[in-house]
Amino acid sequence: MLYVLSMSLESQAGFDRAAEMLQESFLAKLIAWGLVSALLYHFFAGIKHLIMDLGHCEELDSGRLAAKVTLVIAGIAILLAGVWIW
Asked: Which of 32, 51, 84, 85 is the most buried (most CB within 10 A)?
């Protein structure tokens, strides 16, 4: 992905080639989806931790519920990202 980013920043032709590569290559889409998935999960888990830092959901039962909610929300966001990428 860093190679594609570098290529897209070199020139207009490089940008066009990078856009074509990302539109046609299954592997590039899979890698992009993997990176976006990791970022989305990290984002929602970070929000959960910020809520816990405020003193909410610190007990065992509520913490487990917050973890399950985080997984469900992140899963939905990851599926939507997959639809968007493909």
From this structure: 32
Tell me the CATH number of domain 26-85, given options 1.20.1300.10, 2.60.120.650, 1.25.40.10, 4.10.640.10: 1.20.1300.10
In terms of pTM, does the model score above 0.85?
A: no
b/e 31-50 (16+ beta carbons within 10 angstroms → b)? ebbeebbeebbeebbeebee
Q: What is the pLDDT of residues 55-86, one digit of tens each?
A: 999 999 999 999 999 999 999 999 999 999 98
CA-closest candidate to residue 41, choices 77, 80, 1: 77
3-state secondary structure of 54: coil
Cα separation, 86 vs 81, in Å, equals 8
